């Protein structure tokens, strides 16, 4: 489990159950009377009651996290190795095995909404492929031995993409991919303001996703600058996609997260194809191309990292978006806490599984709270299996 850097925890710890007065707390916010925090992100007692009556809520078992702040005791998982300052939001840092474990996996649509989301993504992909002349073909590496001109010929016939074709495709995709997280974060932020409720840790994860996608875009822009036609397409794409996604998220956030999950499945597929082509030598312009400095800083890569390492990190990020959005799509959008507010799921899981079910999210949230709060406070007892875990979230959570 990757624990998020401590400095991030202050604003994102979900409100939880009652803090025990007997617990030895090394605390600066603790008042003489320890307040009771309810398993709901609502503030008004009546709303809390109504939330609880609707059944268990994901992420609400475990010691409370509002009064004491554990950040001082948490070691950051990665240290900044450069002197440019840490100017980005939290983003995952990967080991080599974590980069290589990413798989192309797809979630089988179940509900009508799922089918609509997946159908829409497939249709958009087909249109985009047709428009950009992309053929998802696995060309064997052996063709290079048989024919030294194979690359030029295959590029001409459209069976291989050139470095410029890859770049155009990536820039168009990344310029759109940065929209959903910002829309989701904005709408949940506004909802919190409008309804005078807490958010349960969703906003930061969604904003981090938006920034992560923008960092992909900025990284690739250091490799190549698009011409006016691609820039016009980016503007047109944003003009159409932003309002459509905004309205979808406003009325059907589950559908919107499912749509993003399906979109990210395609992103992992595309980047896997790109990685294969570079590894086989089909994009010779990139074979020995060094990683741009912005990418080395952002993903904490080795100083001699290559562009291929960067593309692998981007693919691992896309797998994370796939996992997070499919998991969020399974949650109760108005009551459940974000199970990834305290800690990321392990990279191997994010890279190989399309998402958590609501039950798995509930279990993961309990484990994260136990691990993190137990570790950070040093003295707070983790919730007891029988009294607290089985009593609430380990109950089968009804899927709504
Ligand atoms: Fe991306
Ligand atoms: Fe993505």
Automatic annotation (TrEMBL):
Transmembrane segments: none annotated. GO terms for biological process: alternative respiration. One of its GO terms (molecular function) is metal ion binding. Binds 2 iron ions per subunit. The keyword Heme does not apply. Its cofactor is Fe cation. Pfam families: AOX. Gene3D superfamilies: Alternative oxidase. It comes from the Eukaryota. Residues 383-400 have a biased composition (Basic and acidic residues). Keywords: Electron transport, Iron, Membrane, Metal-binding, Mitochondrion, Mitochondrion inner membrane, Oxidoreductase, Respiratory chain, Transit peptide, Transmembrane, Transmembrane helix, Transport. It is found in: Mitochondrion inner membrane. Residues 49-71, 371-400 are annotated as: Disordered. The keyword Oxidoreductase applies. Catalyzes cyanide-resistant oxygen consumption. May increase respiration when the cytochrome respiratory pathway is restricted, or in response to low temperatures. This is Alternative oxidase.
């Amino acid at each position: 489990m990757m624990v998020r850097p401590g400095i991030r925890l202050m604003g994102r710890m979900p409100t939880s159950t009652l803090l025990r007065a007997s617990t030895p707390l090394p605390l600066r916010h603790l008042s003489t009377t320890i307040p009771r925090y309810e398993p709901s992100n609502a503030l008004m007692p009546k709303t809390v009651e109504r939330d609880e009556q609707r059944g268990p809520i994901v992420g609400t078992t475990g010691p409370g996290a509002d009064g004491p702040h554990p950040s001082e005791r948490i070691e950051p998982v990665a240290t900044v190795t450069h002197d440019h300052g840490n100017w980005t939001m939290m983003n995952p840092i990967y080991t080599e095995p974590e980069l290589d474990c990413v798989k192309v996996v797809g979630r089988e649509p179940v509900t009508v909404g799922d089918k609509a989301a997946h159908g829409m993504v497939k249709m958009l992909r087909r249109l985009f492929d047709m428009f950009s002349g992309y053929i998802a073909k696995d060309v064997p590496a052996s063709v290079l031995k048989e024919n030294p001109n194979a690359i030029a010929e295959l590029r001409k016939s459209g069976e291989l993409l050139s470095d410029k074709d890859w770049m155009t495709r990536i820039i168009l995709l990344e310029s759109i991919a940065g929209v959903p997280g910002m829309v989701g974060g904005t709408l949940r932020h506004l909802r919190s303001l409008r309804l005078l409720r807490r958010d349960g840790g969703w906003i930061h994860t969604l904003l981090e996703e938006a920034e992560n996608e923008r960092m992909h875009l900025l990284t690739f822009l250091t490799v190549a600058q698009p011409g006016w036609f691609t820039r016009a397409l980016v503007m047109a794409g944003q003009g159409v996609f932003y309002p459509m996604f905004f309205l979808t998220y406003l009325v059907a956030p589950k559908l919107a997260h499912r749509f993003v999950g399906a979109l990210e499945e395609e992103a992992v597929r595309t980047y896997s194809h790109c990685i294969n082509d570079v590894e086989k030598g089909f994009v010779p312009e990139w074979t020995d191309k060094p990683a741009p400095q912005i990418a080395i800083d952002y993903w904490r890569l080795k100083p001699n990292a290559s562009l291929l390492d960067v593309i692998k990190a981007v693919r691992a990020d896309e797998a994370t978006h796939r996992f997070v959005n499919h998991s969020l799509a399974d949650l109760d959008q108005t009551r459940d806490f974000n199970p990834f507010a305290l800690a990321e799921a392990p990279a191997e899981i994010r890279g190989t599984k399309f998402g958590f079910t609501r039950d798995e999210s509930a279990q993961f949230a309990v484990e994260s709270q136990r691990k993190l709060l137990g570790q950070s406070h040093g003295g707070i007892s983790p919730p007891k299996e029988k009294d607290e875990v089985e009593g609430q979230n380990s109950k089968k959570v009804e899927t709504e």
